[in-house]
């Protein structure tokens, strides 16, 4: 790492300048649930432009993931 730093550090700074700052996108639970539902088999059936090799998530998996996100944390 020390050997390549004279070359990699300026290159990284140049790329940061060219690309701009990246903001980390974070989703709340409702947005994640919607994203999971959009990747279900039923939702993907409605999209006609997708290749037939894309199957989507099974209903049981969608129900499990969205159910876990619905569980409220209980304070004892």
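Sequence proposed for the structure above (76 residues):
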């Amino acid at each position: 790492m020390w050997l390549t730093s004279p070359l990699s550090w300026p290159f990284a700074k140049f790329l940061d300048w060219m690309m701009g700052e990246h903001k980390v996108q974070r989703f709340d639970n409702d947005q994640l649930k919607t994203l999971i539902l959009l990747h279900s088999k039923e939702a993907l059936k409605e999209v006609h432009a997708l290749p037939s090799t894309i199957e989507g998530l099974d209903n049981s998996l969608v129900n499990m993931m969205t159910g876990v996100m619905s569980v409220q944390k209980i304070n004892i």
